[in-house]
Design a protein that fits this description.
Elements lengths: L3 E6 L3 H16 L3 E3 L7 E6 L4 H19 L5 E6 H5 L1 H7 L5 E3 L7 H11 L3 E3 L20 E5 L1 E2 L10 H5 L3 E2 L2 H13 L4 E5 L8 H4 L4 H8 L7 E4 L9 H9 L3 E6 L7 H6 L6 H14 L4 E8 L6 H14 L3 E6 L17 H24 L5 E10 L4 E5 L11 E4 L10 E10 L2 E6 L1
Parallel strand pairs: 1-2, 1-3, 3-4, 4-5, 5-6, 7-10, 10-11, 11-12, 12-13, 13-14, 17-19
Antiparallel strand pairs: 8-9, 15-16, 15-18, 16-17, 18-19
Helix pairs in contact: 9-10, 13-14
Length: about 450
């Protein structure tokens, strides 16, 4: 009997790629895959377990599908991903509706575990070693055909004090240059015009395999692939941004001048407590250097407000840093106290309201900066990747080089005399900015 399987994949793009590989493996094993898990025999929740809000979202999805199981709409409920890896026994104990809990090391053998669950009608759990998780393989893409994520490494060695990822995902493991290039060529052949390179730390790519930072070499290789128009890089760490990498950003036309640089803070004492390098002066010099060597680059960062022991003065320094550096894109999050991490045991834990207050102050300041920067594009013409038509606003939308998928803004535009083709690039004359989105007309 061919069982049908549907998946909800939560969390980051890295987890999304894992989910795509899981679905492809199930298809290859003879399972029927469907887009809506509510219409499947087996519903899988590919969970995120990074911070408290993500864990809550994962549990809410599990409970919602558990209700459908109770109503007889689905037969089995499976939990995979980071939450499954991190809370093995707790999921089985606290959520008895779940029929299988599979750690990330079980991803490569997902079909055999689900077959056992169905044929034996029994609870299944499996937690092989983390490094058993495949680094590459076939994928059932969940993104539009013209844009795809390309995961270049798994795990993390940075050991930031607030982060559970090394505990969940294990040591840093790079894919080979050849494997990545082969997958990139296949994605391009299938119509991908934008590849978004991801890893927990993309700048560390290759250090474990080749003994040196190799992201620059990888980008040069990928830039030679016909059909690829944009190469976008996410999750760069400041201490690994080399001169060679900046040269590639500056000179390779296909490498989008957009760098996601999660700094988390600027105060030296707070960064030391986070087990991260640098201080205010170091980061200011780095940002100046990046902007000087790559003129016009869009800089995105993420920050943490309310880290344990963060004084009011240290927070004010962070707020001033944001105003001084004027990032093009930014996300600020209230610190999440994650069990099992060193930061969770630090003195000076702030209450939730105070952490949220500080994050909101930073976010509000950044919103004003982004509005000002957006207004500066009025009167300019931008290249836009067409992604859809908004029938309520009666206009088209897409993304410019300044916008990564799912996390940044969009460009909305009118095309009165043309019907743009999805996944193509058009020129849009910008005539307005509202919040973080740009508005204009095709030219």
């Amino acid at each position: 009997m061919a069982y049908s399987v549907g998946m909800i994949s939560l969390g980051c793009a890295k987890n999304q790629v894992d989910g795509e590989m899981l679905m492809a493996a199930l298809e290859q094993a003879g399972f029927e895959t469907v887009d809506d898990p509510a219409l499947a025999n087996i519903a899988i929740v590919n969970t995120c377990g990074f911070i408290e809000s993500a864990k809550k979202e994962s549990i809410d999805e599990i409970l919602e599908l558990a209700q459908l199981k109770a109503e007889g709409q689905i037969q089995k409920l499976v939990v995979t991903g980071c939450l499954a890896e991190r809370y093995r026994q707790e999921i089985h104990t606290e959520l008895p509706e779940v029929d299988a809990v599979l750690g990330i090391g079980a991803n490569g053998e997902i079909a055999q575990y689900l077959t056992k669950m169905m044929e034996e009608d029994a609870f299944v759990e499996a937690f092989p070693e983390k490094n058993a998780m495949p680094l590459c393989g076939a994928r059932r893409l969940s993104t539009p055909s013209w844009s795809a994520y390309l995961k270049i490494a798994e795990g993390c060695d940075n050991r930031c004090s607030y982060c559970a990822i090394p505990m969940i995902r294990g040591r840093y493991r790079s894919r080979t240059l050849e494997d990545i290039e082969e997958e990139a060529r296949a994605l391009a052949a299938d119509g991908a015009k934008e590849l978004v390179l991801i890893a927990q730390d993309t700048t560390r790519y290759g250090i474990d395999l080749y003994g040196k930072y190799s992201l620059a070499e990888l980008l040069r290789r990928l830039a030679r692939i016909d059909g690829i128009h944009w190469l976008r890089v996410l999750y760069c760490y400041p201490e690994a941004v080399t001169d060679e990498l900046l040269e590639v950003f500056a000179t390779e036309e296909k490498v989008v001048k957009y760098m996601d640089l999660p700094l988390q803070h600027c105060n030296g004492e707070v960064l030391k407590a986070m087990r991260r390098a640098g201080d205010h002066a170091y980061l200011h010099a780095l940002l100046e250097k990046i902007r000087q060597k790559v003129p016009g680059i869009i800089l995105r960062t993420t920050l943490i407000a309310g880290f344990p022991g963060e004084t009011e003065e240290q927070f004010e320094e962070l707020a001033e840093f944001v105003k001084e550096e004027r990032f093009d894109r930014m996300g600020c999050f209230a610190y999440s106290q994650e069990e099992g991490t060193p930061a969770a045991e630090l003195p000076g834990q702030l209450d939730e309201d105070e952490k949220e207050r500080r994050a909101e102050i930073i976010t509000d300041a950044q919103s004003r900066i982004m509005e000002e920067k957006g207004q500066a594009y009025v009167g300019q013409t931008l290249e836009v990747l067409v992604e859809g038509f908004d029938r309520y606003a009666e206009c088209w939308f897409g993304r410019s080089f300044m916008d990564a998928p799912d996390i940044d803004g969009k460009v909305f535009f009118l095309a009165p005399d043309k019907r743009p083709v999805l996944g193509t690039f058009v020129q849009v004359a910008i005539d307005d900015c509202i919040d973080v989105d740009l508005y204009g007309q095709i030219v």
